[in-house]
User: Which sequence fits this backbone?
């Protein structure tokens, strides 16, 4: 076991994930993190002598794993979980998050350290499904040195597996864009499954009632009648996980073609699922008047230049 005072340690404590089919929910089993004091359930990727388990720091529990002196490539410092069997991709989705801690060794900026945590999918023959990685937090940074911070964002909230996936592995790695030798801790990595909601199953651009997951044609953000929705869930689902990052614009126009609200502009993703809640307000946070509004989506592939364009109409109503 290795211990040291200066570290960018990647600590991973993976909670037990128990399949509970009677309740309709499941959780993918990735052992119990590093509480065994070794890499049980995990494999090192990169320079093994610089990847270890330590009792020096942890977010919870007693142990962590760490990456010493990250290199300029993700392949230099990483770990991957053992294969885990997943429930039906048609009926279940997944979430992934982790706590990270970057130690300030006295050099560089926190943004010099890039972190990734993601899922790799495999078919029934344990062959990796090309281009299927999902839940990427590629190039994600913490906001400060020497403190624990949970990493997670929209693309990580609900992850849909490829239709032919039977197994998954969680992968975690890091690199430095400037050679500062700031070591890293990671803790409480959680990879769970849950029954897939209706809004994740329908491909394309759609609008749903967040409280019921039923499709939405009209909502009442300003004055809400009893039992009527006050928010709109704007969802875009792609058939396949993009193999490269894409940029997405989700813009809302009135019937005169005037832009009234920007949900996202030039936001980078590498996921199959985009999910946003709209409160019926404009860019200045004022409630929009009753009427019809056009939700416009553009997704552009950064490598090929291909663009997907979709539109959906939704109405804002008001209680009489």
Assistant:
């Amino acid at each position: 076991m290795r211990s040291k005072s200066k570290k960018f340690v990647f600590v991973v404590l993976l909670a037990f994930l128990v399949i509970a089919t009677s309740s309709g929910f499941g959780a993918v089993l990735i052992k119990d993190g590093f509480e065994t004091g070794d890499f049980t359930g995990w494999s090192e990727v990169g320079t093994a002598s610089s990847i270890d388990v330590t009792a020096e720091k942890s977010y919870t529990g007693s142990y962590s794993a760490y990456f010493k002196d990250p290199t300029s490539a993700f392949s230099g410092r990483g770990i991957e979980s053992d294969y885990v069997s997943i429930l039906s991709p048609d009926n279940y989705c997944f979430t992934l998050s982790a706590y990270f801690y970057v130690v300030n060794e006295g050099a560089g900026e926190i943004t010099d350290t890039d972190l990734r945590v993601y899922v790799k999918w495999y078919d029934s023959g344990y062959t990796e499904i090309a281009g299927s990685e999902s839940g990427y937090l590629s190039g994600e940074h913490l906001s400060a040195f020497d403190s624990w911070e949970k990493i997670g964002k929209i693309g990580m909230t609900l992850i849909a597996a490829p239709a032919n996936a039977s197994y998954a592995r969680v992968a975690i790695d890091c690199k430095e864009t400037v050679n500062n030798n700031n070591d890293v801790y990671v803790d409480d990595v959680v990879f769970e499954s849950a029954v897939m909601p209706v809004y994740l199953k329908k491909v394309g651009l759609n609008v749903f009632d967040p409280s019921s997951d039923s499709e939405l044609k009209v909502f009442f953000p300003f004055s809400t009648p009893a039992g009527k929705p006050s928010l709109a869930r704007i969802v875009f689902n792609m058939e396949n996980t993009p193999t490269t990052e894409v940029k997405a614009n989700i813009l809302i126009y009135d019937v005169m073609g005037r832009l009234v609200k920007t949900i996202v502009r030039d936001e980078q993703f590498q996921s199959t699922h985009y999910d946003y809640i709209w409160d019926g307000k404009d860019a200045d946070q004022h409630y929009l008047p009753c009427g019809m509004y056009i939700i416009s989506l553009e997704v552009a592939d950064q490598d090929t230049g291909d663009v997907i364009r979709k539109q959906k109409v939704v109405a804002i109503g008001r209680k009489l």
Notes: The helical segments are 154-157, 198-201.
